[in-house]
Protein 1
Amino acid sequence: MSVSSAFGKGRPALMPYFTLGYPDDETSLDVVAACAAAGADALELGIPFSDPLADGPTIQHSTQVALQHGMTTRRCLDAVAELRRRGVRVPLVLMGYLNPILAYGLDAFVADAARAGADGFIVPDLPPDEAGEMQAACRHHGLDLVFLLAPNSPPDRMRPVTEQSRGFVYLVSVTGVTGARERLPAHLEAFVRRVRAVTDKPLAVGFGISTPQQAAAVGRLADGVIVGSALIRAVEGSPRPAEAAAAFVQSMKTGMKASPPPSSPPEVPGKNAARQTDAPAAPK
């Protein structure tokens, strides 16, 4: 299925992120399946990597624990296949860094991911202008490759990124690493408006969303809400991880019910409001 099938339901899509293999293989499968059963519209499955440069302490810790327990890229693909066997039917998007994909073999990775039942990929350190080989492999196997934009992405960068992104466009809410934050950035609404001015593809916002109130606020601006660190914290503090994950997703869904996605693109802000720096943001 296309990752875009998570959107267009008359409400914002909820897209939890969870690290495969954390705190162990079986628990991560239970958590992901519980999220799907609780109403997640799509799931981002983290491939552990030893140098997750865009991730904050919570996700970094989860990836290191998973690696210490022997999680590999191959086992991540096996996990996708197992989730499909368990009846998980929502889009599954593998999120990981380029190095493990190249070590596996790019063409083989995409082919094996398709066979396992994945629907797409997010590779934070792979920009569109260097992604030709992976884009070709994804087209061949019918998978989506999602690209990211940051608040300081210049206007001339937005159009090519949105044109090449498939499934949705990932909007990084802050120029920093992942992790829950007390409040949403003041620039977020203007950022979403700028991107809406150049594309009609679904926009999903991630980084720093941790409460139902924040999810509701983002859902009033964007088509999708991505939550990772807060879910991991909810799970690691519970003696019943799958139940904790389901309760977390349900609380987010409840908070987002009053937040139908925009039915039409908001007005484009004035040129002065759209000015941005050329400094690159940390990828996710």
Protein 2
Amino acid sequence: MITKRNKFLCSLYIQFRGNLPLIGLITAVSTIFLGKVVFIHLWYDVPIDQLTRDINAIGRIPAYAGFLSQIGLFCWAASAMLCFFSANIIKTNGNHHKIGQFLLASTLLTLILGLDDAFLLHEKVLPKLGIPEGVTYASYGGLLLFYLFRFHKLILKTDYTLIAISLAFFGLSYTLDFVLDIVYPAAPIPLLTSGQISYLLEDGAKFIGIISWLVYCFQIGKYSIRVSAAKPNIELQAYSTDIEKQPAKYKDIHIYKER
């Protein structure tokens, strides 16, 4: 028993030392956000429970409130993590810097859009800081155009129809938001305000865009990992379809599996 206990304690110590950087990261991130909660509480006199509790509990609203919006936030988070994880895999390979940059840029873009969606930055936060909603939308559009221009060669080697569908529905959602908020007061459109159809159209279009973005991130992550697991000089294009359907020059590629 003593030997087993000593082995366990030794293993525990080795694991602790090996994970010190990660433990430090966990401590740092937790301290930053918890410290922010304390700062907001002390500086703005905001009750701590309003910063830490679930929004449904704070507002005393039904658990299903914001159902579609909450699912959308999960999808934003999943998209960002897929791209970040894939970028880390590519980084360890060290032979696909361009793909790694593309994945990191996708992670950053996803985080920005997800944070905006979660905290309504364009609608509530930034206008209070003197930044009009139109300026925020223009900034997001410029960032997206730069992303597409910078990595267009890589994007064209992926299932770009998915990102096209995503952007089309994001554009539709923005257009409906513009029509309802600006055009409607001057020229009411009965069809868009009959019942709750306006919310279904606007938020539904955005949700379809988010789901399409998630699927695209999954696809580019999958392709990138397969490229990284194969040969250093194989490009992303070689994996845009099923590997069995690839030209003969790619038949010698092996995707290593754990035995």
